[in-house]
Amino acid sequence: MQHYTAEKYRAKSSVGYLVKRASSLVIESIEPALAEHGFTFTQWVVMMYLRDGLAPNAKDLCVQLRYDSGAVTRVIDQLEARDLVRRERSVDDRREVKLALTEAGQKMVGSLIPTVVDKLNFVLRDFSAAEVSELTRLLTKFIAVFDPAAGGKSGVAA
What we know:
Elements: H1 15-35, H2 41-51, H3 58-65, H4 69-81, E1 85-89, E2 97-101, H5 103-123, H6 129-146
Antiparallel strand pairs: 1-2
Helix pairs in contact: 1-5, 2-5, 3-4
């Protein structure tokens, strides 16, 4: 089935535009609240991805975030300097460096989750529980088209 035609296609009504715009607005909504605690949205996402096992190393973070390795390394360095993240050499392959939240990192993520949850709940205040569930289901299905290996584990950590 063709959902779009070249003649009638408009960026503002395309799924790609709407997903990107929604993502940008979520980030803009949450970022100031995280900044009050001394964190950027990217630092938050890195900590959540590590907590939830979505990206256990810098390479996977680069792929998930669509950031270059230098940018990811800077974020990891910042979090490591604050004793929130640690680098661990893999016992199976010494070339691989795994990332993990420290105990302080685990506590920090736990303390920031209510802030993020409050922002998301505010944004979703006019949605019913069924609508949020359906939106989540549809976005998961949409992501799976691009990343079948995700198995429903993809998504923004926000």
